[in-house]
Predict the structure.
Amino acid sequence: MNTQTMTDIEVITVTPTRDFAIINELANHPDIAPHIKDDSSDAPIDASVLNHKANIFLLVRINGRPEGFAIFMGRGVSTYEMHSGITKGHRGATALEAARQALEWIFTNTEAEMVSTWAWSAARNVIMMARWLGFNEDMRVAWPNTVGGEKVDKIIFSMSLMEWARKYRERFESDGWKLQSLTGAEQGKGILGIFARIALGGNLAKAQYFFNRWAVVYGLIPVQVLDFRAGSFCVVAGANTFEISPDLSISKIEGN
């Protein structure tokens, strides 16, 4: 089980066959269910229908208690559709931070290049939250059923890996400073930190492609990511080869 913690918010991966009881309990919570169901059904929500290898389930624990979830549904190559919920007492800043951590997890631990989400036009708080998180509105389509007796549209949002990195790179600057010897440049530290997190998440090709796209922006030397060695990965930058460990310690193993 992978874990990320920031203050008292914890976003963790869950095993559906073992933890669906928790997900279903949250999805049917009176604080959450009215926001994810329309008027066409009053049946309990059963998230087990989404139990597929293409889908990823994250649980949000606050002060050790399960208070929310994020479900990322695979929608083709490198694309996920995000659905989430959190209990009423933790909305606002706490919900935003939990969502940021969930997005960080999906972008750094999977092949995700694009995340989409959607909201009903009547869900003004959800729409505002999507925009605060960095999602861009793509289109609106009519929803076939009413929500709370109101005719609504489905508003579709999306955010690419590069857009996410541009918005959240400052969260990774401390990681990037640990790796300064890799580039020798002061600019782009947040991008360097994201690059390392993607590589340590097991997506070496994605990490290399990500870094080299930003290298053009910052005027950095393109890199080649070689392999894992006991959880570490190797990076060739020019004439130098570095090994980066899970704690982000860096050592030169070849070069001047």
Remarks:
- Confidence is low (pLDDT under 50) at residues 1-7.
- The two ends are 40 Å apart (CA to CA).
- DSSP finds nine helices and twelve strands in the chain.
- The chain has two domains: 3-165, 179-254.
